[in-house]
Write a structure and sequence with these properties.
Layout: E1 2-4, H1 8-17, E2 21-29, E3 33-39, E4 45-50, E5 65-73, H2 76-87, E6 90-95, E7 101-106, E8 113-119, E9 131-137, H3 141-148, E10 154-162, E11 166-172, E12 178-184
Parallel strand pairs: 1-4, 5-8, 9-12
Antiparallel strand pairs: 2-3, 3-4, 5-9, 6-7, 7-8, 10-11, 11-12
Length: 185
């Protein structure tokens, strides 16, 4: 998950000043962007992307395009503090089913969430590290899942329905990268 920033160098300093780290400095990419891979204080990796004229994705939320980024971690207060300090995000947490919470991140003065966060509770295996999950919009989650094995991937979490959101599955590509697909309601 890359976050677009005005200045990657300055933002990297803010990351470090707030307990994160710069894991990999990729620097200039063909003079169209500047990139760094960072970790937050909880260990989740994310990227900084200074576009320098390279356009962002022109399509989102349509089938077969990026639709959502979600942080999974065990300490949502620490994550809210960190991402608030680094990106200016406001974390708004609300109760959801079965005593769990869900947090949405908002930019200042913008009432549309830019990312989400789920607290990893006792249902999550202890060896699952904090991470950002990328979601891709699809027209039919079950149809996508039916093709994964033939393409060399695996299904980590079988399709399930999440109230008021849609049908989700967690998949691994042939190299092991994890991502989710979401058929919105």
């Amino acid at each position: 998950m890359y976050m677009s920033v005005d200045n990657a160098d300055e933002t990297a300093e803010v990351v470090v000043d707030n307990g994160g780290a710069v894991a990999i400095w990729l620097g200039e990419i063909d003079e169209v962007s500047r990139l760094a891979v960072c970790t937050d204080p909880l260990g989740a990796r994310f990227g900084l992307w200074e576009p320098r004229g390279h356009p962002a994705a022109s399509r989102m939320h349509e089938p077969n395009s990026f639709t959502w980024g979600e942080l999974s971690c065990r300490d949502i207060d620490a994550a809210k503090d960190f991402y608030g300090a680094v990106f200016g995000w406001e974390g708004r947490t609300r109760a959801v089913a079965e005593g769990s919470t869900y947090t949405e991140f908002f930019l200042p003065d913008v009432d549309q969430a830019v990312a989400g966060m789920v607290q990893m509770n006792q249902r999550w295996p202890k060896d699952v590290s904090p991470h950002w999950m990328l979601y891709f919009a699809v027209a039919d989650t079950d149809e996508i899942v039916s093709r994964v094995g033939h393409l060399g991937g695996t299904v980590s979490v079988a399709p399930f329905d999440l109230a008021d959101v849609g049908r989700i599955a967690v998949l691994n590509d042939p190299e092991g990268a994890v991502f989710s697909v979401l058929q919105r309601r």
